[in-house]
Q: What sequence folds into this?
């Protein structure tokens, strides 16, 4: 079983969110970028575990982006993975990116494509489903568990108020979230090794974007907290009932 | 025509579908067309349940009552919805951005080459093109996204629009959709029973490390029980195994948008806020006046949760007794 893990570059979780160019671009000056946590902590680590258990032969990382994404790809390679592919395309909507990943998956004959449940910047939760459709493969989204045996997978996914367990055949696409694996901290050996792992740069396949971002905006500032004295908590209950009308 | 996918499990239409229909009906009104609903699989008491979807603004319900749709397979669903949408001439297809919406909508988008906005929080702006506002940066910003294809797919964030009702009933038409061969077999469904699922809860009471240990969770649970709320927790609490992981909210846990988020002994780290900042009203109980959560809160008490919470529960009891 050959695994392809989708790796996305996102701003650090503490990054200040602001926009430039008339609110059409994320202000990335001074922002630290990280591997999207869902991709790193869950998709990548689970792929590595499957390989370590002898259930996968290779783990390849794929990223769609410009050359400035290479440090992030190397960071992910420091955690693990045999090699990486970067599709040299600066930006695009979810469908454009999914089309690139599907093309890599098809060309490379990958059996299993893993993604994080969403990126923490665009929050689309769409790439996995789109890739699956383009590959005509089954898809389990928001998976919390994944096991493999002889050409078959068992995956558990989150549903409202519970979970659902399903069996599916390969090739398949799974989007991963909490529960799937535990975060791994790269060690010195991993970091050194990552420098020499193969990172192939490929040109994108032709696709059309289906959507485009017109502008960004920040939520209106909160009016400010209304503080109630700890001596009169019943006043808080009154406000919640009469002013906020929540119960 | 606006086609709304009304998701069902175990024969019950999900609550979020009512909101999606209300939203779809409003778009239909905006664009001078009709709002119609698609239901896949067998619904309990269909003869009364389905016409009642008119209440939310649907003029017609397309009902594909085929047991092949009773087990969930996003691939089979997306193919069937694509067929139904094409046959009915839908130009906008609406989902609720629930666990199933997140699985199906992207597949449908790729299948129909129809642009998708997932996580929509407002009605489309059709004054120039078709622009939908969506939540980005984990609730810290919005993006206005143009859908540039003739058919448009929107997945609406739960609790972003609200349910709207009127006194109308919908016409129900049975349709025949041939299910494609599935590649997934659902083997079991486990639901937490007896409590409100966090993702569907309108009221949520949540606890953090400030509660010192799992033995003190009555401070959270007593209030939750009194007001009928679901319970949640911070990541620090779930990581310490004080509470089950499905209660963890935040950047790496669940993202929720209830009407009330009541946070007790939670510092309000930016990663925690990322999962709860879309809540309508936020209440914070924290003994540290400098706790960052107060900046994101609507109401707060600076005080010791161990002293304040029992008094709050008493006050709620009294309020309920008065009516
Ligand atoms: C990449 C990344 C992702 C993360 N994702 C998440 C996430 O999804 N969800 C999440 O929650 N966190 C997440 N975190 C962790 C987050 O940064 C915080 O560490 C965590 O939220 C802290 O949990 P807490 O508020 O319960 O605990 P603490 O930070 O320890 O805060 C406890 C609070 O309780 C108050 N307190 C103490 N005693 C009392 C008392 N008697 N009465 C009242 N108040 C009291 C204190 O003043 C303090 O504010 C993430 C971190 C990273 C780096």
A:
């Amino acid at each position: 079983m050959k695994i392809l893990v989708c790796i996305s570059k996102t701003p650090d979780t503490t990054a200040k969110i602001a926009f430039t160019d008339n609110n059409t671009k994320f202000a990335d000056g001074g922002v630290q970028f990280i591997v999207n946590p869902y991709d790193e902590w869950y998709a990548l680590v689970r792929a590595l575990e499957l390989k370590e258990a002898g259930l996968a032969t290779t783990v390849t990382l794929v990223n769609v982006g410009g050359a400035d994404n290479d440090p992030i790809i190397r960071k992910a390679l420091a955690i693990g993975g045999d090699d990486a592919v970067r599709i040299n395309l600066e930006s695009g909507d979810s469908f454009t990116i999914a089309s690139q990943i599907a093309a890599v998956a098809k060309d490379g004959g990958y059996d299993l494509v893993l993604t994080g449940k969403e990126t923490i910047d665009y929050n689309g939760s769409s790439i996995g489903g789109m890739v699956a459709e383009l590959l005509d493969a089954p898809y389990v989204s928001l998976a919390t568990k994944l096991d493999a045996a002889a050409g078959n997978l068992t995956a558990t996914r989150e549903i409202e108020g519970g979970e659902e367990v399903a069996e599916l055949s390969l090739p398949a696409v799974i989007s991963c979230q909490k529960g799937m694996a535990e975060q791994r901290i790269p060690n010195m050996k991993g970091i050194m090794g990552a420098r020499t792992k193969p990172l192939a740069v490929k040109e994108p396949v032709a696709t059309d974007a289906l959507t485009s971002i017109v502008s960004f905006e920040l939520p209106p500032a909160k009016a400010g907290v209304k503080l109630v004295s700890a001596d009169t908590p019943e006043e808080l209950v009154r406000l919640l009932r009469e002013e906020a009308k929540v119960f | 025509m606006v086609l709304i996918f009304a998701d069902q499990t175990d024969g019950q239409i999900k609550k979020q579908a009512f909101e999606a229909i209300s939203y779809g009906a409003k778009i239909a009104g905006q664009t001078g067309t009709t709002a119609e609903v698609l239901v896949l699989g067998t619904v309990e008491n269909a003869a009364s349940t389905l016409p009642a979807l008119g209440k939310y603004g649907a003029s017609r319900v397309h009902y594909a009552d085929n047991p092949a749709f009773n087990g969930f397979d996003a691939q089979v669903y997306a193919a069937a919805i694509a067929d139904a949408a094409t046959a009915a001439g839908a130009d906008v297809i609406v989902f609720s951005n629930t666990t199933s919406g997140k699985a199906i909508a992207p597949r449908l988008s790729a299948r129909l080459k129809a642009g998708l906005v997932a996580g929509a929080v407002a009605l489309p702006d059709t004054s120039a093109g078709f622009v939908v506002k969506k939540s980005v940066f984990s609730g810290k910003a919005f993006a206005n996204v143009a859908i540039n294809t003739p058919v448009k797919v929107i997945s609406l964030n739960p609790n972003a629009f609200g349910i709207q009702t009127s006194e109308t009933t919908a016409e129900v038409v049975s349709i025949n959709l041939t299910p494609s061969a599935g590649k997934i077999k659902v083997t079991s469904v486990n639901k937490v029973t007896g409590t409100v699922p966090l993702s569907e809860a309108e009221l949520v009471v949540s606890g953090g490390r400030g509660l010192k240990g799992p033995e003190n969770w009555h401070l959270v649970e007593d209030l939750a029980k009194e007001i009928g709320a679901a319970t949640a927790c911070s990541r620090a609490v779930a990581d310490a195994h004080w509470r089950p992981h499905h209660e963890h909210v935040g950047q790496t846990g669940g993202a929720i948008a209830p009407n009330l988020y009541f946070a007790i002994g939670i510092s309000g780290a930016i990663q925690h806020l990322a999962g709860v900042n879309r809540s309508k009203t936020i209440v914070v109980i924290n003994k540290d006046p400098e706790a960052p959560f107060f900046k994101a809160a609507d109401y707060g008490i600076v005080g010791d949760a161990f002293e304040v919470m029992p008094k709050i529960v008493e006050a709620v009891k009294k309020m309920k007794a008065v009516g």
The CA atoms of residues 11 and 28 of chain A lie 8 Å apart. The two ends of chain A are 53 Å apart (CA to CA). Helices of chain A lie at 37-52, 70-79, 94-108, 127-135, 188-194, 233-242. Chain A has six helices and 15 strands.
